[in-house]
Design goal:
The protein is built from 13 helices and 19 strands. By secondary structure, the chain is α/β, with parallel strands linked by helices. The chain has an eight-stranded mixed sheet, sandwiched between helices. A four-stranded antiparallel sheet has the order 5-4-9-6. The two termini are about 40 Å apart.
């Protein structure tokens, strides 16, 4: 079961302290390269380099962080949960009272058992996160605060993998690798992406070229656009993989244009998953790297097929988005729907009939006769062939034909291939 394998992969990476830069990103990408994708290319962009309207920030790494009470007992420890530290916190080694400490503490009163995820990438500060029950239990005493971190010139790390196909046109899949200790919002995307890349690397005779990208969110996608803008001109369809790990219904975020081939195949595939999926609005509901890839001067045909959408589930950006929130079943579902989208795109051509009128199916072993008004499997199969043939006017692709006949395109592919082999239809 591929879902179980993806789950185990995610579990192995869960404790790595990631941010938008630093050794946690390198360790994550290194593990993917060493264990799954040996051809993965890892890139570094130095601090201070201009990428479009942005500048690569300082690199952040952390060894330890804690708060101790007046008795020397740990109240908060980074080693217990990566989310306890505000991302990009500068080094600190001080003692202070409760009121001053509270200026640097974050909790969620509405979710008293959850540790929030808080960052401050572009403003130097420091802070800790805890659940609200713990926050309310703090006593009025002196506390020792230490953050053993480095915020200094370094680089931003990202990775990509190119799987060459017969065509230069590309299918682009991007995911992010920058969130600590979150399963659905963070690691489900890299997990499913890695296994999709592994499958495509081993799959012979790919029609399209495939580009996989592993980046820190926002700054990483901007960096990728800046460094690879000319290559992205070949992108035919694109998918942003995030929040693909739970076993709830699907969520769909269309591209900015909403009518690309990626939108078309994604909507079609989701419809046939027996899911009461929700479609969101790009302008109102975007929030991940599609903001960069779909922006007007880039305008990639990028969609997101998610389970619980980011920002729409209560566990989002908290410690409750843990390994118990995702499941092997949910991961397998997401892996499956993306493979089926890819298979449909690989086989999606416009077809035209090679015969005038209806073909004589009997000489091809198809019994079209319905005796006494009674249908059988053979006659229904023959009728389906005739229905497909009636759509093959050169102006309908496989998805169009599937929609017209209310059949899942993934199931239609072998029938279309058979008709092509029988010289009944041809690619237009």
């Amino acid at each position: 079961m591929v879902g179980k394998s993806i789950y185990n992969f995610i579990n192995d990476l869960f404790q790595i302290p990631r941010s938008i830069t630093g050794d946690g990103v390198r360790e994550t990408l290194g593990s993917i390269k060493q264990n799954y994708l040996p051809s993965l290319n890892i890139h570094e962009i130095p601090t201070g380099e201009t990428i479009e309207d942005w500048t690569v920030p300082k690199e952040w790494n952390i060894k330890d962080a804690y708060i101790k009470n007046s008795n020397g007992k740990n109240i908060i420890s980074f080693k217990d949960n990566n989310l306890h530290i505000v991302g990009y916190s500068k080094p600190v080694n001080i003692k202070l009272g409760l009121e001053k400490l509270k200026e640097h503490l974050y909790s969620l009163p509405a979710q008293p058992d959850a540790i929030p995820y808080v960052t401050s990438y572009y403003k130097e500060t420091w802070g800790f996160c805890m659940n609200h029950k713990q926050y309310e239990s703090l006593k009025d005493e002196e506390y020792e605060v230490k953050i053993d971190s480095q915020l200094e010139d370094g680089s931003l790390t990202y990775a990509d993998l190119i799987i060459n196909g017969k065509e230069k046109r590309e299918i682009f899949l991007s995911t992010y690798i920058c969130h600590p200790a979150m399963a659905n919002n963070e690691l489900s995307g890299p997990g499913v992406s890695t296994y999709l890349a592994k499958w495509l690397s081993e799959r012979p005779n790919n029609r399209f070229t495939y580009r996989f990208c592993f980046v820190p969110e926002t700054i990483g996608s901007i960096a990728y656009i800046s460094k690879h803008k000319n290559e992205l001109d070949n992108v035919y369809a694109a998918f942003n993989l995030t929040c693909v790990g739970d076993d709830k219904d699907y969520s769909f975020l269309p591209s900015r244009r909403g009518n690309t081939i990626a939108d078309k195949v994604a909507r079609h595939c989701i419809k046939y998953q027996k899911s009461n999926y929700k479609e969101y609005n790009y302008l109102k509901d975007r929030g991940s790297d599609e903001r960069q890839y779909c922006s007007p001067k880039v305008d990639l045909p990028m969609v997101s097929i998610m389970k619980s959408k980011y920002g729409e589930y209560s566990e989002y950006h908290t410690s409750l988005d843990d390994m118990d929130f995702i499941s092997a079943v949910g991961l397998e579902d997401s892996y499956k729907i993306h493979t089926e989208c890819i298979e449909i795109l690989e086989n999606n051509y416009f077809y035209k009939s090679k015969v005038r009128g209806e073909p004589f199916l009997s000489k091809r072993g198809k019994n079209y006769m319905i005796v006494g008004g009674i249908e059988n499997d053979e006659s229904r199969s023959a009728q389906l062939i005739l229905d497909i043939m009636s759509c093959c006017d050169g102006n309908m692709d496989i998805i169009d034909i599937s929609e017209a006949l209310d059949i899942y395109a993934f199931d239609l592919i072998p029938i279309i291939q058979s008709l092509e082999s029988d010289q009944l239809i041809e690619k237009n």
